[in-house]
Amino acid sequence: MSTVWHVADVVGAHFETPTARTLRLRIPGLHGHLAGQHVDVRLTAPDGYQAVRSYSIASALGGDELELTVEELADGEVSPYLVRGVAVGDQLEVRGPVGGWFVWRPGDETPVQLIAGGSGVVPLMSMARAHAAAASSADFRLLYSVRTPESVYYRDELGMLEHDESAPLRVSYVYTREAPSGWPVAAGRLTEQTLSDSILPASTMPTFFICGATVFVETVSDWLVAAGHDPARIKTERYGGIGGAP
């Protein structure tokens, strides 16, 4: 982990949803990152007040660039500026990458089950992208719990990864508030039974990466342990945004 603050150039930006935006940053001296890591972003006001927030890296392994996908929080100090204010050509202060436990490394052939709640899909997308870039033969699956079809991050790319012949990603969606027209299941929260029906079985000894709001992560983790999955193979990451039960 680098404890030094660096100046990052914003070299790209686009919206994933009406309230979430991906920023591409170029950081001189950055020599790649691990899938699942995060960085700290610091904003400084004219009066000297500073606010620091951590954001997961969305992109796969790379050189001196990385991508962050930021969800706007109505009462946030940093996210509204990153989603609505920052422009290509601006600069941000960044520290990191940070983290060495909640990461996936190319070369690991263990089956992987990703479980995302809302914006918790961001670090898991980094893993899915790294899996595809490495043409890994590891069985990779994603269960994505999201409020509405309009709330889905990376929809088109996830569809492409599902059809990647060299390293396919199997994706299952749970829509909690509104399902797409013609969806075979009514909208509703993730249940223990739906979880069991949608993930790799305990017999395959998968590694789990779960990211979302605290209640979501804790509930899903408890269900997995109750279903016979090894707690040592359950890795979790929580965020402080709005969120309730699965």
Automatic annotation (TrEMBL):
One MF term in the entry's GO annotations: oxidoreductase activity
Obligatory cofactor(s): FAD
Organism: Leifsonia poae
One Pfam family it belongs to: FAD_binding_6
Residue ranges occupied by any FAD-binding FR-type domain in the UniProt entry: 3-104
Protein name per UniProt: Oxidoreductase
Extent of the signal sequence: none
Keywords, comma-separated and alphabetical: 2Fe-2S, Iron, Iron-sulfur, Metal-binding
UniProt lineage: Bacteria, Bacillati, Actinomycetota, Actinomycetes, Micrococcales
